[in-house]
Sequence to fold (513 residues):
Amino acid sequence: MWVLLIVAVIAVGWMIGAYNGLISLKNQTVNAFKQIDVQLKRRHDLIPNLVNAVKGAMDFERSTLEAVIQARNQAVKVNASGPEAMKQISQAENALSGALSRMLVTVERYPQLKATGNIGQLQEELSSTENRIAFARQLYNDTATQYNTRQQQFPTTLVAGLAHAAPTDLWEIEDQAERVVPQVDLSRR
Amino acid sequence: MIGFVLFFAWLGFGGDYVWSLQGHHPFPWVGIVLTIVAILVAWYAYKTGPEKVLWATGARELITPQDDGERQLANVVDEMAIAAGVPRPRVWIVPDDDPNAFATGHDPRDSHIAVTRGLLKICNRDELQAVIGHELGHVKNLDVRLMTTLAALVGAVLLVREGMGRTMMYGGRVPMRSGGSGGSGGGGRRSKDAGPLLAILLALWVISWIIAPIITQLLVLAVSRRREYLADAMGAQFTRNPLALAGALEKIEGAAAPTTAIKRGVAHLCIVDPLGRRFTNREGWLADRLATHPPMSQRISRLKQMGYVELKKEGGSFTSSGRG
Fold:
């Protein structure tokens, strides 16, 4: 009789612990997802500064600069939510990354620009922002993996239904073209 | 923390038991006093640890970056904080030319990371990032809290041993030296069911008193070494670039002169042993037991193994000195 009681208490205790663990991981996953947005927004805010800084010297590269501004405005407009959210955001952000990298390559061709300290600083900020976005995605993937694993492992699966735990998607590259290693051609001019 | 207090309770109430055997008053005040002392010591060490450490090294906080190096450091710390999923720590710079870094702070919400000028000079961005990743690994694992508590434990064990030794002398009947004797645990004891079991227990208790400080210190060092390996692994996980950390460790070891700004008390918190103790780098049983940090070559080879495993998957090749 007593043994049954003790076993029941231990079982309930374990259930509470497992349930709380799942809830905690779910919230951490959501948080990590939003963190990506924070870094993306930072990039959006930084780009106009960069374009203004180079505009004076790069008169002939109008189209490149305009492409960047347009891509940035597109990315800011995307305000998606729901399961398609990730895809839309990824597409817009990837387009922006592409335009940005083309512009940065062009900046390399103007040595007098590098001489002014401002550009160096802005480039460091930009590359730091790209790193942050990458790390935020990494954190999201790590947390989502942890959450998925915990849901699927044996004793916790019993509680998963109770906690409304659903497997989350990882951030991944949608566009196969992204996977191609970029060619950097330094031979011109 | 709880273990720390319980350990003291055990020692204290054991002392009371000895006393009660000798016919003194049964009220277990020794146990209670020891437990209170333990709680006070733990609380004090907990509260004041981090600030004292930073003040002792003469570190200067980095609030607004003044030059490119500082800007890079601030960015690198931000990036690693994102990757680790901890709030941004406060950054300090220690004016010492020897490369080193440490982290303090009991809670990830209130943590500090300090790097020396020497480290900023010799590391490139990736290596700096790997070192910061290692330190944030310490922060995330609450290693500072652990090591501070353990250090307080060692200190308190020494302190209390002095006190107990004196009390026992005045108690008169059980001099410390008699610990080894299996038979009667103390002259003048008059209890009736003395039995050999009791005597053995008593002997064990006295022996554990004598070697308690040594054992505690060894345990603390063992914990410290494991946590260093763990922090290395976490740094590699955050950056996904174990070779960068291996490179940083190699550079730091190459430049190693003792870091004079960082004192002994903080040694276990640093990425490499700041006192340049020779046995930290030697391997072998005794050196392994007495060092706060694992041997550098072992750390580097473990990291390289992580890196080469990565390279192998991508079909890359590795040319330098074999498999670490």
Observations:
- Chain A has a mean pLDDT of 80.
- Residues 17-179 of chain A form a domain with the de novo design (two linked rop proteins) fold (CATH 1.20.1440.20).
- The CA atoms of residues 79 and 85 of chain A lie 8 Å apart.
- Chain A has one domain: 17-179.
